[in-house]
Amino acid sequence: MIAMFSFRKVMCILITLAAGISANALQASTFFKSNDLIIPNQIQTTGELTAAVNCGNSANPVTIAGISFSTDTGNITSGGGDFENATKYTASLSDPSDPNGLNFVSTGIKSGWNGFIEIALSELEPGETYRLQAITGPSWSWCGQELILPVDEDSSGQLDSTFLNGSTGATADLLGGIWRCRNESETIRINFSDHDGSTGQLLGYVLHKLTNNGSGLALKIYSEPGLYGDSCEIDTFDIYSGSDIPAGMDNQAASILLKKGHQAVLGVNEDGTGGSRCYTAYATDLIVNLPAELAGDVSFVRVLEVNYLGKKGVCTGRDSPVNQQWFYNWGSGSSSSPEYEFVPMSWGKNGADEMSDIDYYASKPYVTHLLGFNEVDNCEGQSGQWYNMCDQTVSIQYFSNLQMAGLRLGSPACRENAVFTWLPYFADLAEQQDIRMDFIGVHWYDWGSNPSVNTNPDPANVFRRFKHYLNRVHKLYKKPIWITEFNANKFRERPIQDGFLQLALPYLEKLGYIERYSYFEPNGGFGTFVEDGELTSTGLIYRNQPTRPNQANNSLPLGWDNRDIGSPAESGVCYYSEGIYTVCGGGDDIWGSSDNFHYASFDAEGDGFITAKVESMVNTSDWAKAGVMVRQGLTSDSKHAMMACTAGQGASFQYREQQAGESDSVKDASASSTGWLRIEKDGNVLTGWYSSDGSDWRVVGSKTIDIAGGFKVGLCATAHDDSKLTDVIFSNVHSNWDKSVCDIDSDLEISLADLSLFSSEWLASSSSERKTRCDFNTDSSIDMLDLSVFAENWK
C-alpha cells in the first residue's frame, strides 16, 4: 500500500541495521562505526540502530551518490560499492509528523529550516577520508549532495572539504558552510543552506569512511565521478600514457584523489599535447570530478612532488647572496633541489622543436615548472627575431610541444606592454587549440613613464603604476602571475630602485595571485645587488625581505566560501595563503537597493564581531570599497551592515535596513584607504569601528537591523566600476564567530593552554623574523598587535 502525505509532510525511508548493541550502551552525542559507516546515536522503538536516514516526498526514484530509493515503494538499491552487503539492510516508511510512526530525531538535525550535521572529531581518524551523502530540501524539491572530508594526517581536528556533486534538484549551492564547533562534544558542524544562502533543511545523511586499500601512491584515478568505480594508482616522476596507465585505465578516468604535496598533469593525447590540465594539491589532498573535456578521455598522466619554496627568486645566477629560494637563467642547464628550485626556460624555437629538448626537461629531478619563450613578441630582438617566432601562429606550434614534458607551464614572457597587445592573440590560439598555459609570465620596467627623461620620480608613484599593471594583467587572464624580470628602470639611480623595492616586495609577498617574482639587476644601470664584493643597499633590501610559499588558488579556510553577489561584469575571485586574503572584486557598487561585488564569507549566528586590516586596495574609483560585512543572505538586495574603507573617500559604516530597501551610511572622512575595520553584532544592533593602528578604535556608526537566524559574515570588495576589478589585501582577519586563528593547540577551544603557548612564543621569538604559529598578523614578529588579536578572540 502506498502511503499518501500532504504537501507539508515528509516521507522518510529508514535504512536500519539490526545491531547487537543495547540502547543502554549508547551515549548521547557519540558516533559508532559499523561496516565503514559512522552511525549516529538513534534508537527506534524496536531498539534497532539507525545507520542512515534518507528522506524525500516525491514518488519518483531519487539517486544520490550511488544510493537509489523511492518513496513510492520504499525499495533500496545500492551502487558504487557503498554497502558491502545490501541484504543486511531493511527499509521501512515513516512520517515523522505521525505520532504513531517510528518518531526518530537524527543527531545533529534540527527540525524546520535549520539543517546541519555534527560529526564527532574523536571518531575521525587522521590520514583517512570520509564521504558524506545527504538529502536536503526545500520540501518541494529534494536534492542529493555529496561532500568529501579528508582528515589531515597530523591533526584529526583539521579538515579540508571538497563538494563533489552539487544538487541534483531544482535548487543549487545548498552546502552552506562547515564550522569547527568548540564545545564539549568537539565536533565538525556542516550546515546546509537554501539556494539564496539562507538556512536550509536537512532531511537525512550517511557518512562513510573511504578505506584506503591501495599502496598510498600520490595519485588515485577512478572510473566514475565522486571517487567511485574502478581505480588505479600512479607513482611520481614517470610519465604514464596510453596502455602504460595501470589497470586498463586509459581513457577511463572520471575523478581523481591527489595527495597533498603533489601536482598532476592529465592530458587527452598520449603525448601530452591537446587538452590537458595541471592540478596541484599544495596544502591538502585534492579531490576533483574531471571536467567534460577530460572525463573518460585521459591518456597522459604525470605526477610530481611539489617544492614548498618561497616566492622570491633571481635571474642572475644560482649563487646570488640574497636568500632567494628559486632561480632561472634563460636556459635549461642547471640542476634543482627540494630546497633551491631551478626553473628551466625554453628560450625560443630551438628549445621546443626536438623531442630531445622535451625529454631533457622531463628528466630533470626536482623540476616542476617550465617557462615559455623569452620576449618572443619582439620581431627585432630576443627569441622573436628568429624563425618568424614573433608570428603567434608560428610560435604557438612550438609552444604546444612543451606540454609533452608534463610540467606546469608558463606563458611566453613578453615585453611590458605586449602582454596587452601581442599575448592576447597567442592566448586565444592556445584556447582554440586546447594548449595549456598554467600561469602568465611578465616583464616590467616602467617604460610607460618615459624613464629616460623621468629619471627621478617619487618611488611611490613607480609602485602605484606597478600595482595597476599587475591588476590589469590579472583581470585580463584570471591566471596566476610570475614576474620574471622587473625593476624601477635602468635610467634611475639607486635611491629610486631602493624606494620602489621597499614598497613592492612586501606587496608581492602578500598579493594572492603572484606566485613567483625575480628582480632583474639592470644592465649598465643602477640597482645591482653586489659591488666590490659587498652587498649594496639594493641587495640588502632584497636579501632581508622574508619570503613565503604561495600556490595561487582560491582554496579558503575551512567553512569559508566566496562568490560574486549580484551580476558584476568582471567575475571576482579570492585567494588565501597563511592568513592573508586577496579579494579581487568587480561590480559597480554596494549601494542603493541592490549590490554588485565579491564576497568571501562564512556562516554565523548569534552575536559576535569580525575584524580585519585592509593592507592595500587598487584605486579603480574613489568610491571603490573594501570592508567587513554582516549580511542576511547572498541575494543582491539582502539587508546588511558593513564597515568599509574607500579608495579616496575615507571610511564608511554602511547598511540596508530592509531587503530591497535603499542603502544609507555614516562617513568618516578622516580615515585613509587602509586601516583596521570591525563590525559587531549585539542582538539587532550593528556597530562599525575604524582604527588606523589596530589599537585606538573609534565608532563610526551604529544601526538597529533585524538580521535573524543564520547569516553570512566576511570580507567584501567592489571596484565601483563594472569594467574593472579592484585588488584588496586583507590581513589580521579574526572573529569570535570563527575562532580558529587563536586555537593554537587545536583542541577546539581558546583556553589557558593557548595562553601558555602564546606566552612562550612571545618570550622566545618576539623579535624573530621567522613565521610562528602566534604571528597572527603575519608581520614576521610576535608583538602587541598579536596580543590584541588573541585577547579579542579570548573574549
From TrEMBL:
<protein>
    <submittedName>
        <fullName>Glycosyl hydrolase catalytic core</fullName>
    </submittedName>
</protein>
<dbReference type="Pfam" id="PF00404">
    <property type="entry name" value="Dockerin_1"/>
</dbReference>
<dbReference type="InterPro" id="IPR036439">
    <property type="entry name" value="Dockerin_dom_sf"/>
</dbReference>
<dbReference type="GO" id="GO:0000272">
    <property type="term" value="P:polysaccharide catabolic process"/>
</dbReference>
<dbReference type="GO" id="GO:0004553">
    <property type="term" value="F:hydrolase activity, hydrolyzing O-glycosyl compounds"/>
</dbReference>
<dbReference type="InterPro" id="IPR024655">
    <property type="entry name" value="Asl1_glyco_hydro_catalytic"/>
</dbReference>
<dbReference type="InterPro" id="IPR053183">
    <property type="entry name" value="ASL1"/>
</dbReference>
<feature type="domain" description="Asl1-like glycosyl hydrolase catalytic">
    <location>
        <begin position="320"/>
        <end position="542"/>
    </location>
</feature>
<dbReference type="Pfam" id="PF11790">
    <property type="entry name" value="Glyco_hydro_cc"/>
</dbReference>
<dbReference type="InterPro" id="IPR002105">
    <property type="entry name" value="Dockerin_1_rpt"/>
</dbReference>
<feature type="signal peptide">
    <location>
        <begin position="1"/>
        <end position="27"/>
    </location>
</feature>
<dbReference type="InterPro" id="IPR013320">
    <property type="entry name" value="ConA-like_dom_sf"/>
</dbReference>
<dbReference type="InterPro" id="IPR017853">
    <property type="entry name" value="GH"/>
</dbReference>
<keyword id="KW-0732">Signal</keyword>
<keyword id="KW-0378">Hydrolase</keyword>
<dbReference type="GO" id="GO:0071966">
    <property type="term" value="P:fungal-type cell wall polysaccharide metabolic process"/>
</dbReference>
